[in-house]
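Page 47, continued from p. 46.
Same chain as before, 301 aa.
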Amino acid sequence: MSTYNFDYLDELEAEAIHILREVAGQFEKPALLFSGGKDSITLVRLAEKAFRPGKFPFPLVHIDTGHNFEETITYRDQMIERIGEKLIIGSVQESIDQGKVVEQTGKNASRNALQTVTLLDTIAKYEFDACIGGARRDEEKARAKERIFSVRDEFGQWDPKRQRPELWNIYNGKIHKGENIRVFPISNWTELDVWNYIRREKIELPSIYFSHEREVITRNGQLMAASPFLNMDEEDVVERKQVRFRTVGDMSCTAAVESDAFLIDDIISEISASKISERGARLDDKVSEAAMEDRKKGGYF
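Result:
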């Protein structure tokens, strides 16, 4: 009799593939939200395992703030060419031009919050009934509250009191017209799980995840990449430091960490010793104690 040895990564992978196939089976127009970060890149690999040699039963959707890291956009375009899947881009700049959102002003202005409107418009335009994302429960306390199948009302809003039970890995995707489900296949993964899976699968990532020299300024105690998207003044001193990014988002709200981790093994060791979560480097989470939950209630992913 053959014996099969499954480690914890195999179990996490199997759960995620099962969830992706549930989405394909239960929904008519699903989509996979792709940010160019390590979690959404991991979802693409899981989708390949779930559906190859066929095509994905959903397009990839990127909500482009216009303030992304250049390395992320280059990676996105190269990956789409490699996997041959459909990419839909929702533009925050278009939302601004159409008067649907107003560009923030001030020293700490960011487009991160504006992308909620662009996301909801994109969902409505293409009539997506399920959106797959790479959020994980270990990232932030509001995300820890959320189910794997998370219902959003006709306005895209999340109500933490409307959580559905998910006993025995049974996922209820029933929704009314206008509602949609946000789906989180790697909800039970940790940051270390993702990195160990990336190492095992030999997944390529944008270069900003690895140590490199970059011009930065120190703002609110965080190292921010010096860029035209930051409203800098005479108080901002530009320095060159050896840094990397633990999370990828809008350049105006995503901070770097000083690091000499050039290899994945170095990153895994660094994360294992860290006492700060990866979203500790996201200034948009520090606006208030309930910043993430407030954004989710408004339609943020």
